[in-house]
Amino acid sequence: MSLIQAISAAAGGAAAVPAGPALGLIEQLPGLQVALPMLGAVLAALLRPGWLAYAVMLVVALLSPVISFAILHEVLAYGPISYEMGGWEPPVGIEYRIDEANAFLLVLVSIMMAMVTIYAPRATASEIPARLHSWYYAMLLICFCGLQGMAITGDAFNIFVFMEISSLAMYALIAMGKDRRALVAAYQYLVIGTIGATFYVLGIGLAFALTGTLNLVDLAVKLDPVQDSRGALAALAFISVGIGLKLALFPLHLWLPNAYAFAPSVATALIASTATKVAVYILVRFVYSVYGVDISETMAYDTAFVLLLASIAMIAPSLVAVFQSNVKRMLAYSSVAQIGYIMVGVALLNEAGLTGGLSHLFNHAIIKGCLFLAVGCVVYSTGITKIDQMAGLGRTMPLTMGAFVVAGLGLIGVPGTAGFVSKWYLIQGAAEVGYWWLVAAIVIASLIAVFYVGRVVELAWFREARGAAASPRAPAPEMLAVTWALALAVLYFGFQTDISAGVPAQAAEVLLNGYTGGAMPVAETQGGVSLGE
Amino acid sequence: MTAEMVPTGALGGLSPGLILIIGALAVPFLKEQARGPYLLLLPVLAFFQLMSLDHGLMGVVSVFDIELVTLRVDRLSFIFGTIFLIATLLSMIYQYHVKGWMEHTAGMIYAGSAVGAVFSGDLVSLFLFWEGTAIASVFLIWATRTPEAMAAGQRYLIVQVGSGVLLLAGTMVHYGQTGSLAFDSFDVETTAGLLIFLSFGIKCAFPLMHNWLQDAYPQATVTGTVMLSAFTTKLAVYALARGFAGTEILVPIGAVMTAFPIFYAVIENDLRRVLAYSLNNQLGFMVVGIGIGTELAVSGAAAHAFCHILYKALLFMSMGAVLLRTGTVKGSELGGLYRTMPWTATFCAIGAASISAFPLFSGFVSKSLIISAAMKEGYFVTWLVLLFASAGVFHHSGIKIPFFAFFAHDSGMRPKEAPTNMLIAMAIAATLCIGIGVFPGPLYAILPYDVSYHAYSLEHVITQLQLLIFSALAFTVLMRTGLYPPELRSTNLDSDWIWRKGGGWVLGRLEAAWRGASAALQQGAIRGVQRFVANLYKAHGPESALARTRPSGYMALWMTLLLGVFMLFAFI
C-alpha cells in the first residue's frame, strides 16, 4: 500500500502517515470516481478521431483503479466514508457512502475496466466501423460511470439514475455488435431492462411513501419500526424482482444470452464481468443493510424460494451451456449459472455463505472476463464463434487457448484456482445450515462445467485444425497480455486469498451487521485447522 | 493445533515428492544427452533428502485458513517412501533408452505425486497428489498411441479422477463434521469415512472396482507399465494402512482379491494381463494384512508392498523386454526365447520365484508375515484362502510367465537380448529380491512396528515347500501327459482333478455367460446413457424451452409471476 500512501500524502500534502482521513484531494476521491468517467465520456464523444477518444478512455481507465484502491485503503484503515455530493447534507442531499462491501466492488469494476481498455483498440478496430469508434468509447465510459455510480452511491433514487445511465449505454453497446441479431438483442434488453428498472422505482416509491426518505442509511433507520408492514414488504418484493432481472436471476435471465453473444468482444467482457455483479451488490445492500438480516424471519419463504431458484440456476443453464453451438452464448449461459452460485451464497444468510457469494462475485468476474477476452482474441484472429469450428485452435493459437484452459479450470473450480476458493466457502456455508442437497447441487453444477469447458478444450487441443482455425492471424500482443494477466490472476487468487476471500469476509461481516447494527448472531465459522495431534 | 517443528532435512522441509515433481518440469527443456543422467539424479537427490529427514511433521504451508502438512515422516510413510524412490530409480534406468521428453516427464511427475501423497499429513495435500498420480499416469498409457490405448486411458482417467472426487467429497464432509483435515485413521461407518474408504478402494482395485487395472495396464507402453505397477495401487495400500488399519471388512475383501484373479489369470493369454491379474491377487494379501490390523499384520502388509513392488516391477520389466524385442506378449505366440535372451529369462525366473514365495526369495519373507498373522488372529477361512491363493500365484506367475515366454515349444523367434539399461534395471531388482530373501533383517528393521519374526522357521519353510512342490508336480504331470494345450485355454492347474477334467468346459461356459451378461449390461448401460443424453438435449438443447430466444412479453410475464410469488410468500 506504499504507493497509495504516497499518493494520499502527495494529494493531501500531509505528513507521511496521516492520523485520520487525509484532507484535500483525497477527500474528493469518491466524487472523482464518478465524475472522471462522465467527463471522459463527454470528451470522448466530442473528439472525432477514434484514437483521441481512446486516449481519453485510457487515461480515465488507468486512473480509476488508483482512485478505487485509495478508497479501499481509506475504508480498511479508517472505516466507512461518507461523501456529501455538492455539499448538500444527507439525508436530503445525495450521499456517497462507501464501506468494505462497495469499496471492494469499486476496485473490481475499475480493474476490469482498465483491463478491458488496454485490450480494446485493435479488437475494436476489427469489429466496429471507424466512424463509430468515438461513440463506442464514449458508451463504454458512460457504462463504466453508471456502474461506478451504482456501487458508490448511498441514495436509493440515485442508484436508479445510475442504473439507467449504465443500462442505456449497454443497450447502445450491444446494438453495435457486428451480427444483425445484436440489434434485436439490444432492443429486447431495452424493453425488458426498462421493466426491471420500473419495478425498482416502484419499490423505492413504496419505501419513500412509508418513510419519506431516499437515503439508504436513513431508510434503514426509518424502516426498522415498520418493516413488517405490507408496504415495506411489497417494496422489498418489487426491488428484489426488479434487481433480480438486472442480475439475471433464473428465470429472469432471458435477456442475457443474446446480449452477451452478439455484443462486441470488449463490451461483452466488460458487461459480463461487472454489470451483473453490481446488480448483485444492490440487492445485497437492500436485503442486508437496509432491511437487515432479521427480515428473513418474516420472509422465510421468500429466502427459501430464492435459494431454490438459485439452485436451479446453477444446474439448468449449465446443462443448456453444454449443448450450445456458439461459444459466447455458451459462456453466457455459464454466467447465468455462476449468478446462481453467487445468489446461493447471498440467500444462505450466514457469514460463510455470504463470503462465498461475494468472493465468487470477484472470482467469477476475473474468470469470465478472461474467458470472454480469450474468445475475443479468437474472433479477432479467425472470426470464429462456433464451437465446432474451434477444432485444432489449441495448436494454432496455443497462448490464447492456454489462457482459456486456465480460466476454464477456474470456472470448474479446480483446487489451486480462484473458483475453488469461493466454492469452498459456499459449500461450507451450505454445510453449516445442514443443506446437504445444496452441497450436492454445487458439486453437480461444477461437474457439468467440466463438460462444457471440456468440450471446447477437447476440440481445441485434440483435433486437427481446419478452415479458418488452421491459419489464424497472430493475435495482438496487448490482447494476449491482458488475457494472460487475468488467467494468472485466476491462479494467483487461488492461493493468495487476502483480496479474493479476505476482503469479502470483512464485507460480509459489515453487511450482516446492517446499517442499523442489527444484532444478528454471526454464526461461528471454523477458524484454524488442527492437524497431526 | 500447529505441527511441532523439528529440525528439517538437507533441503529444508521440502517433500521428496516435490523434488521429483519440480525436477520433472525441467525435463522438456533439457538436451537429449543430459536428460538421462538428470532423470537418474532426481530420485537419488530425493532419496538423500528422505534420509536426512527426522521423523515428524514438516513443510507446513498455509493456504487460506487451512494448514497443509506436506511432509509427515514416520515409520509407515518412510518405508513406502523408500520403496517408491527405489522403484522410481529402477524405472528411470529401465526407460533410459526412451527418446523424447513426454513419457519421462509424465513418469517423473507420476512418481513424485505418489511419493508426495505418501508423505502428506493432511487430506487436502493427499487429494492434490492423489489427482496428480491420476493425471500424470494416464500419459503413460496414452503414449502407446494406439486407439485401444487412447480409449483405455480415457476409461482409466475417469475412474482415477472419480476416486479423487470421492476423496475430496469425503474430505469436505470430514472437515465439516470434525473441523480436522488430518490424515489419520477414519471410521468406515461415518459418511466421511465411507467416502474416503471407497476412494481408496477404487484405487486399490477392490473386487468389482478392479476392472480399470486389467483394462489399462496392459495397454501402457513397455516402460509405462513398469511404473504403473509400482505406484498407483501401492499408494492405495499405504492410504488404507494409514486410514483404515484394523477395519474388519478389509479381511474378506482382501481374501476375495487374492482368490478370484487366479481364475482369470490362468485363462488369460496376454502375459502382461496375466501379471495385471496377479497384481490384484498380491494386493489382496496386503489388504488382508491391513484388515487384520495387528502390528504384525500391518508390518506384513508394508513389507509385502515393499517386496511386491520389486518383483512385480521385475516381472513387468522382463515382459516389457520381450514385448520390445518380439512385438508380442501373447503366450501362444512366444516360447523358446531363453536361447537368445538368457539374461532376461534368468531375471524373469528370479521374479517368478520371488512372487511365488520360494524360500530365499523376497516374497517368502513378507508373505509369511501376513499368513502367520491371519493364523495367529484365528482367521481360519482366510488363512485357507491365502494358502490356496499362494499356490495359485505359483501357477500363473511363477510357472506360466517364464515357461511360456522363454521355454515351452520353440516359437522360432530369435530376438536380440534386451538393451543394456533394461538388463541393469532388472539385475538390480533381481539382486534386491534375492538379497531381501536371504537377509530379511534390514527390511524387518524399517517396518512400521518392531516385530520379532523369524521367516525361516522349519514350519514356514516346509509349509511353503509343500505347496510349491505339489503345484510343480501337478504342472509336470500335465505337461508329460500332454494335457497342457498350447493356447492356454484350460491351463487351470491349481485345483483338483475335477477342475482338470471339466474345468475348461465349465470355465468356457461361465466365461461365455459372463461375456454375454456383461455385453448385455454394457449395451443396456450405453442405451441408458444415450437415452439420458437425448432427454437432456430435449430439455436443454438449443431448441429446448430453456434455451430458446423468447419474446419480451414472456419475460414480463415471468417478472409478474415472480413478483406475485414474492408478495404471496411475504404476506402469509
Automatic annotation (TrEMBL), chain A:
Looking at the keywords, is Transmembrane present?
yes
Q: Identify this protein by name.
A: Monovalent cation/H+ antiporter subunit D family protein
Keywords associated with the record: Cell membrane, Membrane, Transmembrane, Transmembrane helix
Q: What does this protein do?
A: NDH-1 shuttles electrons from NADH, via FMN and iron-sulfur (Fe-S) centers, to quinones in the respiratory chain. The immediate electron acceptor for the enzyme in this species is believed to be ubiquinone. Couples the redox reaction to proton translocation (for every two electrons transferred, four hydrogen ions are translocated across the cytoplasmic membrane), and thus conserves the redox energy in a proton gradient.
**Similarity comment: family membership:** Belongs to the CPA3 antiporters (TC 2.A.63) subunit D family.
Location in the cell reads:
Cell membrane; Membrane
What the entry lists under Pfam families is as follows:
Proton_antipo_M
- Could you read off the lineage of the organism from its UniProt record? Bacteria, Pseudomonadati, Pseudomonadota, Alphaproteobacteria, Rhodobacterales
Q: How does it sit in the membrane?
A: Multi-pass membrane protein
Q: Organism's domain of life?
A: Bacteria
UniProtKB/TrEMBL annotation, chain B:
Keyword entries, A-Z: Cell membrane, Membrane, Oxidoreductase, Transmembrane, Transmembrane helix
Cellular localisation: Cell membrane; Membrane
Domain named NADH:quinone oxidoreductase/Mrp antiporter transmembrane is located at 120-390
Transmembrane region(s): 6-27, 39-64, 76-94, 126-144, 156-176, 220-241, 247-267, 279-303, 309-328, 340-361, 381-408, 420-441, 461-479, 554-571
- Pfam families to which the protein is assigned, alphabetical: Proton_antipo_M
Q: How does it sit in the membrane?
A: Multi-pass membrane protein
Function field = NDH-1 shuttles electrons from NADH, via FMN and iron-sulfur (Fe-S) centers, to quinones in the respiratory chain. The immediate electron acceptor for the enzyme in this species is believed to be ubiquinone. Couples the redox reaction to proton translocation (for every two electrons transferred, four hydrogen ions are translocated across the cytoplasmic membrane), and thus conserves the redox energy in a proton gradient.
Q: Which PANTHER family match?
A: HYDROGENASE-4 COMPONENT F, NADH-UBIQUINONE_PLASTOQUINONE
What is the protein's given name? Answer: Na(+)/H(+) antiporter subunit D
